[in-house]
Specification:
InterPro entries: DUF1091 (IPR010512). By secondary structure, this protein is α+β, with helices and mostly antiparallel strands. It is 24% helix and 44% strand.
Length: 180
């Protein structure tokens, strides 16, 4: 009896050492930025950069031509690919100026903002008097959020954001990722 328990325990430990932990991974597949009103705001950078097979990052820069920005509204939606991209879980519009003052009041927006906040100059509330920069958001950061903080099922996703600044529709950003 003791021998079978010991054998079972040793077998289980060996199995745990041999089998690797399976972790979902994120890969950026595309990034699209479109300026709607170039007199007001224009994307001067919208890049997806692949350093090697495992390290990719995205960067965007928006030049704001009519400052200051005192009102900002953002609509963001998460879409999953099911024979085309279909809405998945979230589609929300929020007052960004209010959000920056009261982030805990909107946990869904905070979840997405936390992915970029340390890589951006979006670190204060309105008014904004300078260009908006999001620089080098890596797949590692996004992977941590979509696998450890709030796990998502495998698949192809698109996060789409629509921006209204000072009540003027300015642009659209679409970030495409694959979770496998």
């Amino acid at each position: 009896m003791m021998y079978t328990k010991l054998t079972l325990l040793v077998s289980l430990l060996l199995l745990m050492l041999i089998v690797k932990e399976i972790k979902p991974r994120v890969e950026f597949t595309n990034l699209k930025c479109r300026s709607v009103n170039k007199d007001f705001a224009e994307f001067t950078q919208c890049t997806l950069k692949s350093i090697n097979r495992t390290y990719k990052y995205i960067s965007t820069k928006v030049s704001l031509h009519k400052l200051p920005i005192t009102k900002a509204r953002v609509n963001f939606g998460l879409y999953k690919r099911f024979n085309g991209y279909r809405p998945f879980l979230y589609n929300k519009t929020l007052d960004a100026c209010h959000f920056f003052q009261h982030q805990k009041a909107n946990p869904v927006a905070k979840y997405f903002f936390d992915m970029i906040k340390e890589y951006s100059n979006l670190n204060h509330s309105c008014p904004y008097n300078n260009d908006i920069i999001v620089e080098k958001v890596s797949t590692d950061t996004v992977n941590h959020h979509v696998t450890k903080i709030l796990p998502y099922p495998e698949g192809d996703y698109m996060l789409e954001t629509h921006w209204m600044l000072n009540d003027i529709y300015c642009g659209v950003i679409q970030v495409y990722i694959t979770l496998f």
